[in-house]
Design brief:
The complex is a heterodimer of chains A (114) and B (115). Chain A is an all-beta fold and 114 residues long. In chain A, 0% of the residues lie in helices and 54% in strands. Chain A contains no helices and 12 strands. Chain B is built from no helices and 13 strands. By secondary structure, chain B is mostly beta strands. Chain B is globular. Classes of the chains: A mainly beta (114), B mainly beta (115).
């Protein structure tokens, strides 16, 4: 079975600060996907990124960047120059590529203050 | 756009009632999931289904059952609701293509209160 750990329960930053959300995972599968989702106050989870286990290249999308390190089983998410609209709960998730067993971490609640 | 629709946003039910939560997706996805979200516990998988009439237990199936008679619809059933099943329930679907799963798309959630 898979396990995803997000050790940070809550983070509070001031607007324009950079913030990193940690995600550590456990799996016996050799091929898998990792995901980040955002859950704004409205409640619906929004997909942010998918990364497969054989691609350790870091990815940047605007103010968002992701650092995947297989050696430490981590998939961390950094928001640069945070904004109030980034306030949400962020979830990391893992699924084996060839079955359907998607598991989520407990989530990190990010509050960005003006 | 993928659309996953849950039949109710809010539900209040009495202890012992049989409760049906319905979920419909419009993108012909093979996989469908039911999660429960509680503060501090994140999303916990109740059941998932990878095809019509097929189902697999997740981490917390006790007290729940599911039904998938059509590809687009996945129902979660609480046989006899209890107060500890008060929670936010999230339905999701994902595509299985080329032997691999894609990201999951979520509904808006159903907040169930059992009194």
């Amino acid at each position: 079975a898979q396990k995803v750990t997000q050790a940070q329960t809550e983070i509070s930053v001031v607007e324009k600060e950079d913030v990193t959300l940690d995600c550590v995972y456990e799996t016996r599968d050799t091929t898998y996907y990792l995901f980040w989702y955002k859950q704004p106050p409205s409640g619906e989870l929004v997909f942010l990124i998918r990364r497969n286990s054989f691609d350790e290249q870091n990815e940047i999308s605007g103010r968002y960047s992701w650092n995947f390190q297989k050696s430490t089983s981590s998939f961390n998410f950094t928001i640069t120059a945070s904004q109030v609209v980034d306030s949400a709960v962020y979830f990391c998730a893992l699924t084996p590529i060839q079955n359907n067993d998607m598991r989520f971490g407990a989530g990190t609640r990010l509050t960005v203050k003006p | 756009d993928v659309k996953v629709t849950q039949s109710s946003r809010y539900l209040v039910k009495r202890t012992g009632e049989k409760v049906f939560l319905e979920c419909v997706q419009d993108m012909d996805h093979e996989n469908m999931f039911w999660y429960r979200q509680d503060p501090g516990l994140g999303l916990r998988l109740i059941y998932f289904s990878y095809d019509v009439k097929m189902k697999e237990k997740g981490d917390i199936p006790e007290g729940y059952s599911v039904s998938r008679e059509k590809k687009e619809r996945f129902s979660l059933i609480l046989e006899s609701a209890s107060t500890n099943q008060t929670s936010m329930y999230l339905c999701a679907s994902s595509l299985f293509t080329g032997g691999m799963n894609t990201e999951a798309f979520f509904g808006q959630g159903t907040r169930l209160t059992v009194v």
